[in-house]
């Protein structure tokens, strides 16, 4: 135990120096970019890993090793892209604020547009899911903003039931008659719900399994 003292002292000094650096206001913008990269990577992994795990084991075929590789790849891609985007966005925000001497709303839009183009511009399944997720939230947000600013009148009744009816009516019509227009993961989910439920051979694939695993 006595020999650990000489090792601990430099580590404590290094920790104090690092903490002092983190409290320096002149480095705050650069440090925020670095922490943004860290948070983007962690959040992307937290979001994608469970989703990829469920979707892979529910709908994808292949060996266990192939499934685990697919989960790891999807998690890595989501985590990396989100980290790169946050890093780019916060870096551009800091640069614009420094150049103009203040922060204005357009800075956010421009920085995010550039980051979106550079990081999420490739049309692949991961990016597509993220963009569609954001698009639905944007439509809700813009609708609320339009009411708040008085551009459209406040609805007398809650419009959500009508919206729910139109969304479900449209998506099932597309699934039944224009399936190729829907995202593959949504096609898989709807096939499981609405088509696989019409096929069975005995009690095993009626209640226990979705599909028979034998060749009978």
Automatic annotation (TrEMBL):
Per the UniProt record, one Pfam family is Tim17
GO CC, sorted alphabetically, is: peroxisomal membrane
Q: What InterPro entries does the record tag this protein with? A: Pmp4 (IPR019531)
Q: Domain of life of the organism in this record?
A: Eukaryota
Q: Which PANTHER family match?
A: PEROXISOMAL MEMBRANE PROTEIN 4 (PTHR15460)
Give the protein's recorded name. Answer: PXMP4 protein
**Record organism:** Sapayoa aenigma
Provide the gene name from the record: Pxmp4
